Every structure is written in C-alpha cells, then in structure tokens.
C-alpha cells in the first residue's frame, strides 16, 4: 500500500510542479504585455506616438485613459481561460496516470 501512496505522491508532486511552471510562465507573459502596453506606449513612446490619432485623441492619451484598462481586462480573461484549460489538462493527465497505476497493480 505504501508503494502506491508513494507513487501517487510523486505523481501529484510532478503535476503540481508542471502546474506552477505553466502558471508562472502565463503570469510573466501577462505582466510583460501589460507593462509594454501601459508603460511602454504611454510613457516611453508617448512623444513619438503623439501624432497618431485614435478615436479622436492621441494614442498615448487614449491608452493612458482607456487602453491599458482594456488590455488588463483582456489579460485577466485570457489568464482565466488558459488556467482553466491547464487545470483540466493536468487533472486528466493525473487521473490517467493513477488509473494506469491501479490497473498495473491489479494485474
């Protein structure tokens, strides 16, 4: 019985590591995109993009007022959808590996 529990614990640790690796990659990518869209367009490229008009105002002004909030909302939505997929995928992977272990034990 201990061998099964140890195998199951090892599998759970592997799946947990995989989950956090994917989670941190997604968070990092989201933060980089948000930083680039809010700080980059508004502050770093503000002088260069002042002549670009978007919906009646300059692009840096629009991004400072509306765009960065919309980008943030889309990033949160993307994070929720992708984490749901990752969780379901890893759950299926864990369940299939534990079922395989149980079948091997019973055979």
UniProtKB/TrEMBL annotation:
NCBIfam families: Na_symport_sm (TIGR03647). The chain crosses the membrane at residues 26-49, 61-81. This is Putative solute:sodium symporter small subunit. Keywords: Membrane, Transmembrane, Transmembrane helix. The keyword Transmembrane applies. Residues 17-89 form the Sodium symporter small subunit domain. It holds the Pfam family DUF4212.
